[in-house]
Structure to design on (121 residues):
């Protein structure tokens, strides 16, 4: 004897999962994490580099968010790595390392809100 199982509402479930996936990849979902990383970068850069500090921003490049200094802050690389005449003053990698857990948590919270909206909670 053959048993049959019928799933009711499968199309709705599939549509909701696809919507959740698209929202997870959206820049709006990633932005809270980018804001945290930007703040940490600005807090950690040397205080005498005002132009570098003010050049740190969030930029949209297609479907990507970039966080960091723009072209005016190019010398941030030299601060991070040092030169023949100047010792390294790392700020970028330590900022990322410190902000990463909080940024991931912020993105997760935003994604949780998206999931709740899709499922109507």
């Amino acid at each position: 004897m053959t048993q049959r199982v019928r799933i009711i509402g499968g199309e709705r479930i599939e549509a909701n999962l696809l919507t959740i996936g698209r929202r997870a990849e959206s820049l709006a979902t990633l932005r809270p994490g980018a804001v945290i990383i930007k703040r940490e970068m600005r807090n950690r850069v040397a205080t005498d580099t005002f132009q570098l500090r003010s050049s740190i921003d969030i930029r949209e490049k297609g479907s990507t968010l970039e966080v960091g200094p723009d072209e005016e802050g190019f010398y941030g690389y030299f601060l991070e790595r040092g030169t023949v005449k100047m010792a390294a003053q790392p700020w970028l990698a330590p900022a990322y390392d410190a902000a990463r857990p909080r940024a991931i948590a912020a993105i997760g919270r935003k994604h949780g809100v998206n999931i709740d909206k899709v499922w109507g909670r």
